[in-house]
């Protein structure tokens, strides 16, 4: 750790105060971890290994020989069809995936060769700061829908006016590099400051909270129906999300990225046709222009 004995002892006492117990037994036989100390050491080892992997990804300049292709992704509905397309177009080639709520981190990993391809989601109409060595392609732009409890008074509406949800508790993701800001701006433009009660980054957990009657939240329109909640369009599509591929022009994905994008996009629209609320919305309004 690069610390002298007094500084190390001080740091250990500080950690012990923070966790509320002793980390080590000290006696004439030496020093042994307590039960709490052993738990902390196991957790710390896992954290150190994770940071070692992160440093490896961010600072490696060239992929290792024979390494699997590395794909990073946000919580995009296109992920399944993207990976299926990759498997079909590159049969026998292994690949690894990593989920991350931050598009900024994913773009940085593409730029630094930590991953070879990223599938990211961008909320709203704002531009996307992209490292100069990274290329991007918008696959789909979609409207955000809202999930409400199945017994909610608005659950049967064809489309829900956002202003009608002004008094609701909202369940939102705290990640997403600005999506929360875009969400709040959208609500303010419709006359209310949203009451954000639950910060939850896991989509299934957000939907569980909705179905349990704890609030409402935005979802992708391709979310399949599930017990206890109703997924409805927002009138006027006040918030849209873009699904974007990112890769290095000199990376291993570059030669076939156009064909892969076509496969992934086709899979998305097949999913959209199978999702009743979105299918009906598309019939009324048509597809949004990707751009």
What does the model show?
The strands form 4 sheets. Strands 4-3-5-12-6 form a 5-stranded mixed beta sheet, sandwiched between helices. A 3-stranded antiparallel beta sheet has the order 10-7-11. Strands 1-2 form a two-stranded antiparallel sheet. Helix 3 (79-89) links the parallel strand 3 (69-73) and strand 4. 28% of the residues are buried. The chain has 8 helices and 12 strands. The protein is globular. It has 3 domains: 9-59, no CATH class; 69-142 and 240-285, D-Maltodextrin-Binding Protein, domain 2; 145-233, Periplasmic binding protein-like II (D-Maltodextrin-Binding Protein, domain 2), CATH 3.40.190.10. By secondary structure, it is an alpha/beta fold. Helix 3 crosses helix 7 (257-274). The protein starts with a helix and ends in a 6-residue tail after the last helix. The protein has helices at 5-19, 35-59, 79-89, 103-111, 179-189, 203-211, 257-274, 276-285; strands spanning 24-27, 30-33, 69-73, 95-99, 117-123, 134-143, 145-149, 169-172, 195-199, 217-219, 229-233, 240-248.
Topology:
Layout lengths: L4 H15 L4 E4 L2 E4 L1 H25 L9 E5 L5 H11 L5 E5 L3 H9 L5 E7 L10 E10 L1 E5 L19 E4 L6 H11 L5 E5 L3 H9 L5 E3 L9 E5 L6 E9 L8 H18 L1 H10 L6
Helix pairs in contact: 3-7
Keywords: DNA-binding, Transcription, Transcription regulation
Protein name: Transcriptional regulator, LysR family
InterPro entries: LysR_HTH_N (IPR000847), LysR_subst-bd (IPR005119), WH-like_DNA-bd_sf (IPR036388), WH_DNA-bd_sf (IPR036390)
């Amino acid at each position: 750790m690069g610390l002298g004995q007094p500084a190390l002892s001080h740091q250990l006492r500080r950690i012990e105060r923070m966790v509320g117990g002793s980390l080590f037994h000290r006696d004439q036989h030496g020093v042994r971890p307590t039960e709490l100390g052993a738990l902390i050491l196991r957790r710390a080892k896992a954290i150190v290994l994770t940071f070692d992997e992160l440093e490896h990804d961010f600072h490696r300049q060239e992929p290792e020989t024979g390494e699997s292709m590395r794909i990073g992704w946000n919580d995009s509905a296109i992920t399944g069809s993207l990976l299926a397309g990759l498997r079909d177009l590159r049969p026998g080639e292994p690949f690894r995936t990593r989920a991350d709520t931050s598009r900024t981190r994913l773009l940085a990993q593409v730029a630094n060769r930590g991953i070879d391809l990223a599938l990211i989601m961008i909320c709203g109409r704002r531009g996307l700061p992209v490292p100069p060595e990274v290329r991007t392609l918008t696959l789909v732009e979609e409207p955000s829908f809202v999930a409400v409890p199945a017994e909610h008074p608005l659950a049967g509406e064809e489309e829900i006016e956002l202003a009608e949800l002004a008094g609701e508790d909202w369940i939102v993701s705290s990640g997403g590099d600005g999506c929360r800001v875009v969400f709040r701006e959208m609500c303010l433009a419709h006359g209310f400051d949203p009451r954000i009660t639950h910060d939850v980054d896991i989509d299934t957990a957000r939907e569980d909270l909705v179905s349990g009657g704890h609030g409402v939240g935005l979802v992708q329109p391709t979310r399949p129906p599930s017990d206890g909640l109703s997924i409805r369009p927002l009138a006027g599509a006040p918030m849209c999300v873009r699904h974007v591929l990112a890769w290095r022009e000199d990376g291993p994905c570059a030669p076939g990225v156009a064909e892969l994008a076509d496969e992934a996009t086709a899979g998305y629209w097949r999913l959209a046709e199978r999702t009743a609320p979105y299918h009906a919305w598309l019939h009324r309004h048509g597809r949004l222009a990707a751009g």
